[in-house]
Design brief:
Helix content: over 70%
Strand content: under 5%
Number of helices: 4
Distance between the termini: 22 Å
Order of helices and strands: HHHH
Largest sheet: none
Length: 131
């Protein structure tokens, strides 16, 4: 594992730990109908998907720029469909508050997208500067 991937995994562990703590506090402080017990499963899904996409795009960044763009577009489309499928699955099969579920989903989506894109951008910037 290279230095960049190690750095990404450290940031991911920190962000995930903060999200777990926020999820715990949410479930302890909110009224019973606003608690989201499946929030940890949702968080786990986001962590796994971000790791897989990061590893895929890191590998693609070592090739040609055209190949990277194709890989990035493929990863984005697949991730979009996976996120929609998981969200619809949770909405259909979960008996928990739907508004709370959507709120948590959007929060995790925003946090992990910012983490993924910012790290990928800095990685590509370093590669460009090295050339």
């Amino acid at each position: 594992m290279n230095k960049s991937s190690s750095k990404f995994l450290i940031y991911l562990i920190i962000v995930t730990s903060i999200c777990v703590a926020l999820q715990f506090v949410w479930n302890m402080q909110m009224e019973e109908d606003m608690k989201l017990k499946s929030g940890y499963a949702l968080l786990g899904f986001f962590v796994v998907s971000v790791v897989l996409v990061h590893l895929f795009l890191s590998r693609a960044a070592k090739g040609s720029p055209q190949g990277f763009v194709r890989s990035f577009m493929l990863a984005t489309v697949l991730k979009f469909f996976a996120y929609l499928t998981v969200l619809i699955g949770f909405l259909l099969y979960s008996s928990e508050n739907k508004k709370t579920l959507i709120l948590h989903f959007l929060f995790y989506y925003a946090v992990f997208t910012v983490l993924e894109v910012s790290h990928l951008y800095s990685e590509l910037r370093k590669k460009k500067d090295a050339l």
